[in-house]
Amino acid sequence: MTAHIIDGKAFAASVREKVAGHVARLKDGHGITPGLAVVLVGEDPASEVYVRNKGKQTVEVGMASFEHKLPAETSEADLLALIEQLNADPAVHGILVQLPLPGHLDSDLVINSIDPAKDVDGFHISNVGLLGTGQKSMVPCTPLGCLMMLRDHLGSLSGLNAVVIGRSNIVGKPMAQLLLGDSCTVTIAHSRTKDIEEVCRRADILVAAVGRPEMVTGDWIKPGATVIDVGINRVPAPEKGEGKTRLVGDVEFASAVEVAGAITPVPGGVGPMTIACLLANTVTAACRANGLPEPEGLTA
Ligand SMILES: Nc1nc(=O)c2c([nH]1)NC[C@@H]1CN(c3ccc(C(=O)N[C@@H](CCC(=O)O)C(=O)O)cc3)C=[N+]21
């Protein structure tokens, strides 16, 4: 039996359609155009993949897109001044500072200077604390997208064993919080975990977010498990005619698809959902900022 392939690209399109509906309602009914500001400091190859689709999709759903491209040598003071300006701008409902930042900038300081209500990445310490205590917050886009796909595929997650591989602040930790919020029994595995294959084989839900190409193979997976592959790794293409590089996940798809019950592909899985959830968070932020009921089905 081969796994059901969860189509993140199609799911993301349906999320964007919902977002577009809410944007239209905000515009026509209330004269509000949700706006997303993206701040890029310097150039990072991994970030470029992301930026390519994002501005386009923001405009496609009817929102305003503000891009601020700053040189790599921008000072912390100048970056903080820009964020202060965006915090104060009523046309800006969401602010995203592209990570990683150049080494001379303190990313914790920068992220925590964003107004938490406009922190559509959900990385501000206030949002992290709100999520961890089950209060209304901005939820990080990648874990939110994973949660939406899991709920859509499985219905209830209650009582299931979930294993998250990776303990980053942007994926692993918030993902674990969301799964706990949906009453999973959650394990966070990482590079120092003993018998990691064994730990993973107990998972009904396996989320791989380590950034190591094809680390998880079919023999790590419980038959029938739902596998979410967060990894986006660019590796050299083995065959001529495939271009110089190709994208692979943290899961070895060919062996995993034979064992899992369902699996997300790379590309076309978590990546498109991340961008869709960024737009969803922006429309949610715009509703909250104006005291309007928040969109249903777009929040955790
Ligand atoms: N503050 C901040 N927030 C982020 O969310 C953030 C960031 N910084 N820095 C960079 C990473 C990277 N990231 C991606 C999102 C979607 C795709 C995506 O849609 N990928 C396509 C593949 C695109 C292709 O074919 O190259 C897919 O998986 O199908 C990729 C990468 C968000 N990031």
How would the blueprint of this fold be written?
Blueprint: E1 4-5, H1 8-30, E2 35-41, H2 45-60, E3 64-70, H3 76-88, E4 94-97, H4 107-111, H5 125-132, H6 141-154, E5 161-165, H7 172-181, E6 185-189, H8 196-201, E7 205-208, E8 226-229, E9 233-236, E10 245-248, H9 253-256, E11 262-263, H10 270-289
Parallel strand pairs: 1-11, 2-3, 2-4, 5-6, 5-7, 7-8, 8-11
Antiparallel strand pairs: 9-10
The site of 5,10-Methenyltetrahydrofolate has 20 residues, from helix 2, strand 4 and helix 10.
Task: Offer a few descriptive terms.
single chain; 300 residues; alpha/beta; 6-stranded parallel β-sheet; 3-stranded parallel β-sheet; globular; binds 5,10-Methenyltetrahydrofolate
Question: Nutshell version of this structure?
Answer:
This protein has 10 helices and 11 strands. The protein is of the alpha/beta class.
Query: What gap, in angstroms, lies between the N and C termini?
Result: 32 Å
Can you summarize the main beta sheet? 6 strands, parallel
Global outline: globular
Strand order of the largest sheet: 1-11-8-7-5-6
Q: Could you state the order of secondary-structure elements as H and E?
A: EHEHEHEHHHEHEHEEEEHEH
Domain Tetrahydrofolate dehydrogenase/cyclohydrolase NAD(P)-binding: 140-288
Pathway: One-carbon metabolism; tetrahydrofolate interconversion
Binding site for NADP(+): 166-168, 232
Subunit structure: Homodimer.
Can you describe this structure?
With 300 residues, the protein is an alpha/beta fold. 40% of the residues lie in helices and 16% in strands. The protein is built from 10 helices and 11 strands. It has helices at 8-30, 45-60, 76-88, 107-111, 125-132, 141-154, 172-181, 196-201, 253-256, 270-289, and strands at 4-5, 35-41, 64-70, 94-97, 161-165, 185-189, 205-208, 226-229, 233-236, 245-248, 262-263. The strands form 3 sheets. It has a 6-stranded parallel sheet with strand order 1-11-8-7-5-6. A 3-stranded parallel sheet has the order 3-2-4, sandwiched between helices. α6 (141-154) runs parallel beside α7 (172-181) and α6 crosses α10 (270-289). The radius of gyration is 19 Å and the shape is globular. The model has no long low-confidence stretch (mean pLDDT 96). Residues 46-47, 49-50, 53, 96-99, 121, 141, 232, 247, 266-268, 271-272, 274-275 line the site of 5,10-Methenyltetrahydrofolate. 5,10-Methenyltetrahydrofolate binds at residues 46-47, 49-50, 53, 96-99, 121, 141, 232, 247, 266-268, 271-272, 274-275.
